[in-house]
Each structure stands twice: as structure tokens, then as C-alpha cells.
Amino acid sequence: MALADYIYNKPTIETDRIVIRPMTTEDVTDLKEWMPDKSIYTYWGKGPSKTEKNPGLLFEKGNKPTKSLHLGISVKDLDKVIGDLWVYLIENNRMASVAIRLSKKYHGKGYGTEALSAMVRFCFEKTELKRLWAEVDIRNVASQRILEKSGFTREGLIRQGKMVNTWCDLLCLWHPRF
After folding, report:
1. Which one of 71, 80, 116, 148 is at 20 to 30 Å from 56 when CA atoms are compared?
2. Which of 158, 28, 12 is nearest to 85 (CA)?
3. How far is CA 116 from CA 18, 42, 71, 131, in A?
């Protein structure tokens, strides 16, 4: 399969504890619990947007066809969306950036590593992507740990780089296709 196969039908990926899947209007209650929380945006490069403050807006315009993926992370036992995951900035179907965000309530429980590792496997086994990369604020040690546990390697440091609306030192990490 190829990225083009997921333009209209986004994938669902299961692990032992989580399901990574397209989000729906039924998830708005879950999203309202954590998306507006300003503390999860400390290293995100910006504060919560209008849509993140009111997650119902995510579903008003409908989905625009795109190769990029924006999926929810749902805990199987709770059937609750506790975070989201992106594969975006896709370049020539060869490389893409990844990002992950979790509700603070679920930090430190291994869900982030489990979700990102599953997404890496999916990208390399079910698409033509050859390389994934991420940029993380150097102060965000927890995200660095998730990336490294998921197989990413530190590649370099951008001093005073721009992450969305914030200037900070950025650590660049990459993951080659296995």
C-alpha cells in the first residue's frame, strides 16, 4: 500500500492497550478534557488554538483529503481518546515529520511510546516512507525519551530555531526505515 491509499480512508492501528484511529464527533467529550489544557502546550510552540479550546470545531468543516495523518490515541479498556498523533510535512512520499501529544493524566504510563512505536511500524510497513523525523524543544525531556524508545536517533541541534510561534533550541531526531 501507499500513502495515497490513505487519502480518504485513514488507518486504524491496534496494539495490546491502545487503538490509533480517526477521531469522530463522539470523541469531543474526551478531547474537551485535555485539548484546552494550557500545560500540554508548554513545549508545543504555541498555546491552544480556537479549535483546541473547542474541539467540536474539528468536525465542522469535514475532512479535507490529504496524505497527512492526524489520528486519535484511544485506550482500549476505557474507550477514551487520550491523545493524538500526526504524520505530516510529507516530502515526495519519502520522508515525513511526526508529532504526538497526550493528556497530562496519562503521562508516564507508556502510552506515548506504544503509540509512536506502532505508528513507526505502520509507516514503514504499510507506506513507502523511508524516513521519519521530529523536532523537539530541548527542554522537553519526556518527548525525547518517547522518541528514543521508539527508535529515533538524535541527529542534531538547531539553536534558537522556530517551533510554530516560539524560538527555542530544537533537537532533531530521525528514524530510518528498518
Report:
1. 116
2. 12
3. 11, 20, 11, 14
N- to C-terminal Cα separation, the chain: 17
Give which of 143, 135, 74 is closest to 107, Cα–Cα. 143
Pair 63, 101: CB distance under 8 Å: no
38-93 confidence digits (pLDDT tens) = 999 999 999 999 999 999 998 887 778 999 999 999 999 999 999 999 999 999 99
- Exposure string over 28-40, b if 16+ CB within 10 A, otherwise e: bebbeebbbeeeb
Alpha carbon 149 to chain centroid, angstroms: 15
**Distance between CA atoms of 124 and 105, rounded to whole angstroms?**
30
Question: Structure pTM?
Answer: 0.94
* Residue from 67, 126, 136, 125 nearest 99 by CA: 136
* 91 strand-pairing partners: 95
CB-based contact 73:81 (threshold 8 Å): yes
